[in-house]
Amino acid sequence: MTKIRTRIAPSPTGFLHLGTARTALYSWAYARHHGGEFVLRIEDTDVARSTQDSVDQILHSMHWLGLGYDEGPVYQMQRLDRYQAVIDQMLAAGTAYRCYCTPEDLEAMKAAQEARGEKRLYDRTWRPAPGKVLPPVPEGVKPVIRFANPVEGVVNWDDLVKGPISISNTEIDDLIIQRAPEDGAPEGAPGVPTYNFAVVVDDWDMAISHVFRGDEHINNTPWQINIYRALGASLPQFGHLPVILGDDGQKLSKRRGAVAVSNYDEAGYLPEAMNNYLARLGWSHGDDEIFSLEQMVQWFDGTHLSKSPAQWDAAKLAWVNAQHLKAMPDAELAERVKPFLKEVAVDERLVGICGLFKDRCDTLVALANWVRAFYGDVQPRPEDMAQHITPTVQPALDLLATALQDVEWTAAAIGTAFKQVLSQAGLKMPQLAMPVRVLVMGTPQTPSIDQVLFLCGREKVLQRIAKR
Ligand code: GLU
User: Fold this and answer.
1) How many whole angstroms separate alpha carbon 45 and alpha carbon 312?
2) Per-residue pLDDT tens for 82-134?
3) Does 119 participate in catalysis according to the annotation?
4) Is 11 in the pocket of ligand 1 (CB under 6 A)?
5) pTM as predicted
6) How far is the CA of 142 from the CAs of 103, 187, 190, 191, 262, in angstroms?
7) SS3 for 252?
8) 299 in the Ramachandran plot: left (φ > 0), alpha (ψ -120 to 50) or beta?
């Protein structure tokens, strides 16, 4: 059996998009499921738009998601010699040819086709054919290289996601596989190959067995299959994943919200939750909603992929994140929340604080906000003060302050002292607990008051109770 090798091939023209992250996750999980390999390739042939900063961001997000690769990053711009060798081979074999059409020629061709109500396709002016006389090579025009696509027949493939697809060769033209050399490029310098060509040479050279990618590439696949055939290369299997729609039903895009993986990293989402949520956007394993990456690897065999677009649901992602936060061991959570608390000198209490608050938080940012209440100052809202710090409760707060002055500082002893004050003052638990929460944590809603007071520390608790 051929070795399973998958890849993710982002173009470094921006951050790692959620759609690309999902494709990366599926490709990675598929390789891991089969004991295969996963490759990262940087498709940087769009020289004007590719940046190192974008490469760095993509690598950072892949690392954050925990999608490790066995090979790469491979940069296409470092493989120009290889592409040139294949182009030369194709020119010699007649499966590629030089085209000297100028942009003006192509414009005129397009206008004439439009006027005739025809589809816009390159008219193969420069394609050699037996008995055909090519136009004279124009002075000063640097040629592009075009692929001699078969003129008839149908391209079929059984898509791993969409099922059988077939596109007639009459629908597609002879695409450009190598751009003309840049103006001012040294004599003999090769032009840069285009995506549809470089992707085939790379997937072939890298022995990629399964190509998962977004379904915006479905129209490119027939060309690619034809190029594989022209090269005598064996075909990978293709799986085209449906787009992810925003909650407004439109394609998820920057204009409509956060679409970079890094946005979610910064907003305090866990990579575990991000992977879990992305996995479910287009794939299912029974009714399982919350699972780990290890479980996904066990289950992800390329079946149960959805053919229809998934809809981004921010509320569901927050719920998934909350489930992972809740399930995480406290000590681990403490490590994860630290980067959100750079300005705070945390101590050993952090683990307990995380344990106490984790099931009330959707994100690490929310958890960090709770943690801050233990280390910095709190500012109770005047409305909460007015509502809860009433004349009836004032004497009980004094009693509590006295009791807490020399109680043994454990949650249990604090709890007992608290109850004694309640019975002395003739109050019920919430009548005193709510005001104490407002004073100590700045809000009437907190977990168990004895735990909160214990973790806050005697000195801070007494100072805050006094501030009223
Ligand atoms: N560079 C392409 C993209 O980012 C990759 C497409 C493919 O996976 O073949 O869309």
Assistant:
1) 30
2) 999 999 999 999 999 999 999 999 999 999 999 999 989 999 999 999 999 99
3) no
4) yes
5) 0.94
6) 12, 11, 11, 10, 42
7) coil
8) alpha
